[in-house]
Specification:
Structural class: alpha+beta
Number of helices: 10
Shape: globular
Number of strands: 31
InterPro entries: RmlC_Cupin_sf (IPR011051)
């Protein structure tokens, strides 16, 4: 089969779909913006215009040999089987295949993450391709024309351990994020009420003569803790190297706890005392399943251990770490002083609207309305349907609980799909009574 090189793959694909031609192959360049130095890769696509199906692969000698051996009249699915890639139905919602990223406090599960540490996929768990490949060939349909600005959807899954499962106490200057609580581990929170550190303690702040005095006291508390923290971390690093583990490699809490038994007990007691003093400066808000947390910029926050959440955020990888009860593995320093120069002390949890019935039987509640994207929570009080067809921009859809399906495909809890702009008429989201789903859209073209 002849392979045509094209510079505008989405336009070329649209031209193929507008006709009634036979199978067609083309290659195109892909800038891997998510990798160091953004190398250029060449991808190979084979389109079946009749069935509006597409196969994507890396353009390599093996793929070209497979294509040469494959008959023009062959089924696109047989080609996909040989290449071990999925067949993508154009104009339809495509399943997102998450990638798991280990963290010192647990793990993140990325559904639309694209960076050096990992890239989410599309297809099935058994057969998938990197998400950015799809966004390169159809950026207008699946990424609002800008793959690098795609809404970042992920799940935060902290450990249940009281110390090792707490996230960084950090703030953001540009990144906007919202959490929806989906599970509270009763091993950590027997009453089902977890928490999040969110801003600072109003009571402790009132004891100081000024906000600057309060900030200075907090900074001093952090500095005292950090000195002990680094002493312990250096000793743990020595143990890690002794057993052949990189000093920045996450290890299970059970391993860390065993290693801590080798550290001087007086030093550990000092760490615990200083940690409690440092943490007393922050405010802890209760969280239960279904709660929503909007995190404004410049607000310090730290999701607590055992509280699992779905997170939607701006794909900006910036943060300032004020404190952490473990070694930070991704940067060599904390940002306490710099963060305190910009931090907002009067942090409040923004309220949610009551919602409205978007279609008969589905209560639609806007979870967040940020500058660049919006998120809604859908609750069905009877069996209902919502069309995702012909919308002007892509939608991210995640099932949370109950019966959720799209075009006959059942979505289990925390399963997510990417629905394109101007989707086909059969792209209908169905919710059984009691079902809950989340849906997000880029702000530029919400309709």
């Amino acid at each position: 089969m002849q392979i045509r090189s094209v510079s505008k793959p989405e336009q070329h694909l649209q031209n193929l779909l507008a006709g009634s031609g036979s199978l067609s192959a083309f290659s195109f360049s892909h800038r891997a913006f998510y990798l160091d130095e953004a190398p250029t890769k060449v991808l190979l696509a084979v389109c079946d215009p009749t069935n509006a199906e597409l196969v994507l692969s890396a353009d390599c000698p093996e793929a070209r040999h497979t294509l040469d051996e494959w008959s023009d009249s062959g089924c696109l699915h047989s080609l996909a089987d040989t290449l071990a890639v999925p067949v993508l139905e154009l104009g339809c919602a495509i399943s997102l295949v998450p990638v798991v990223i280990l963290k010192p406090w647990g793990r993140e599960i990325w559904y639309t993450g694209m960076e050096v540490r990992g890239q989410s996929g599309v297809g099935t768990t058994d057969r998938s391709i990197p998400l950015p490949w799809l966004l390169e060939v159809m950026p207008g349909a699946y990424a609002d024309g800008n793959p690098e600005a795609m809404i970042l959807l992920k799940v935060l899954d902290p450990l249940a351990d009281e110390v090792f499962g707490d996230l960084y106490f950090e703030m953001h200057e540009r990144k906007q994020e919202v959490y929806v609580v989906t599970h509270v581990d009763q091993r950590a929170w027997p009453d089902g009420i977890g928490g999040i550190r969110f801003g600072f303690s109003d009571q402790l702040r009132a004891q100081y003569g000024s906000d600057q005095a309060f900030k200075d006291a907090f900074e001093q508390a952090v500095a005292r803790y950090e000195a002990v923290r680094r002493d312990i971390d250096a000793r743990i690093d020595t143990i890690k190297l002794g057993v052949g583990i990189d000093v920045n490699e996450p290890v299970p809490p059970s391993t860390q706890i065993a290693w801590l038994q080798q550290i001087d007990a007086k030093l550990l007691a000092q760490e615990e005392s200083l940690r409690h003093t440092m943490e007393s400066f922050s405010k802890v808000l209760p969280l239960k399943i279904g709660d929503v947390v909007k995190v404004p910029c410049y607000t310090p926050h730290s999701l607590q251990h055992g509280v699992r959440t779905v997170e939607f955020q701006t794909p900006v990888y910036e943060r300032k770490i004020l404190a952490f009860a473990q070694k930070v593995l991704t940067q060599p320093h904390w940002d306490t002083r710099e963060a305190l120069e910009k931090v907002v002390l009067d942090a409040e949890m923004p309220a949610l609207d009551e919602g409205e019935e978007a279609v008969a039987g589905i209560l639609c509640q806007q979870v967040v309305d940020f500058d660049d994207f919006a998120v809604w929570r859908l609750r069905a009080h009877k069996h209902s349907e919502m069309s995702l067809a012909k919308l002007s921009a892509y939608r991210l859809v995640m099932a949370i609980t109950g019966g959720v399906s799209l075009r006959g495909r059942v979505l289990t809890a925390e399963q997510a799909v990417l629905c394109p702009a101007l989707a086909r008429p059969d792209q209908v989201l169905k919710l059984e009574k009691g079902a809950v789903a989340l849906i997000a859209a880029p702000k530029s073209k919400i309709s």
